[in-house]
TrEMBL record:
SUPFAM superfamilies: Terpenoid synthases. Transmembrane segments: none annotated. GO terms for molecular function: metal ion binding; prenyltransferase activity. This is Geranylgeranyl diphosphate synthase. Keywords: Carotenoid biosynthesis, Isoprene biosynthesis, Magnesium, Metal-binding, Transferase. Belongs to the FPP/GGPP synthase family. NCBIfam families: FPPsyn. It comes from Populus deltoides. GO terms for biological process: carotenoid biosynthetic process.
Length: 303
């Protein structure tokens, strides 16, 4: 069947995000009880339950439901994705990395708990992510659970987030080519979003064709997420400085608007949205409504 371009199906997206977000927050709260040793669990909970849009868990659940699985099949993986995302933020904020004082509007983990505990809270969240999927996924074959665990591991390690971070650090203060910028974005941001969608599909019982179709959708929205972030960064810093958009000189960090201009960056974002929607054209538009709207949300988000 040929994919068809369809208009965005009507859907209560805001309510959907709130409802799924609440379910995820409840499951995360239960996944990390405040136990002995208290300080490390306080630090894990502090960062994990500090808000955040919960985009990765919701993508995972939406993908699982699209292929016919119930939310409960994907919930442990959805939680694991947020644990991994949170640990990457804790480590990214450390003095040896970006040295940030604020995250999600609150003091960063190392500012509150000290650097030693922040490192360990990240490590513990990473380990718990894998344990949580392996121990708490119910009614999914072990083959599928193992496949999802492998997908998660590859998204995080030296072929995934860590690769992106390493190349990002190496590129600091240097002129960065478009292909290096894309490498950084694909690895630091898109890989985990890809794992979210792919793992959701695996847990939901998708066949191999569907998993790969949804992987393509996820690759497009993964890069889109970061291109939009770059555009937002530029617009925000320009507004703050009362400058014209497109002339941001506040940091030497490479971004899409800086390398190709704001208009081309916006065109690229539109292209990526179209590519993502094309993959969804193979599915019933009503069932795919959450993923259509998630792509559109990522394309037009303001934070
Ligand atoms: C993963 C083992 C391991 C180590 C960490 C530090 C590091 C290696 C990688 C950096 C990863 C990083 C900080 C990527 C940026 C990801 C990103 C786009 C963050 C913002 O995501 P949002 O907008 O944030 O979804 P909220 O707060 O809404 O969750």
């Amino acid at each position: 069947k040929k994919p068809q371009k369809v208009p965005l199906p009507p859907f209560g997206f805001k309510e959907y995000m709130i409802q799924k977000g609440n379910q995820v927050n409840k499951a995360l709260d239960e996944a990390v009880p405040l136990q002995h040793p208290r300080k490390i669990h306080e630090a894990m909970r502090y960062s994990l339950l500090a808000g955040g849009k919960r985009v990765r868990p919701i993508l995972c659940i939406a993908s699982c439901e699209l292929v016919g699985g119930g939310e409960e099949l994907a919930m442990p993986t959805a939680c694991a994705l947020e644990m991994i995302h949170t640990m990457s933020l804790i480590h990214d904020d450390l003095p040896c990395m970006d040295n940030d004082d604020l995250r999600r509007g609150m003091p960063t983990s190392h500012k509150v708990f000290g650097e030693d505990t922040a490192v360990l809270a990240g490590d513990a969240l990473l380990a718990l992510a894998f344990e949580h999927v392996a121990s708490n996924t119910k009614n999914v074959s072990s083959d599928r659970v193992v496949q999802a665990l492998a997908e998660l591991g590859s998204a995080v390690g030296s072929k995934g987030l860590v690769a992106g971070q390493v190349v990002d650090i190496e590129s600091e203060g240097k002129e960065v080519s478009l292909s290096t910028l894309e490498y950084i974005h694909v690895h630091k941001t898109a890989k985990l979003l890809e794992a979210a969608v792919v793992c959701g599909a695996i847990m939901g019982g998708a066949d191999a064709t569907s998993v790969e179709r949804l992987r393509k959708y996820a690759r497009s929205i993964g890069l889109l997420f970061q291109v939009v972030d770059d555009i937002l960064d530029m617009t925000k810093s320009s507004e703050e400085l009362g400058k014209t958009a497109g002339k941001d000189l506040t940091s030497d960090k490479a971004t899409y608007p800086k390398l190709i201009g704001i208009d081309e960056a916006k065109k690229f974002a539109a292209q990526l949205t179209d590519q993502a929607n094309q993959e969804l054209g193979f599915y019933d538009p009503v069932k795919a409504a959450p993923l259509y709207h998630l792509a559109s949300y990522i394309a037009s988000r303001q934070n």
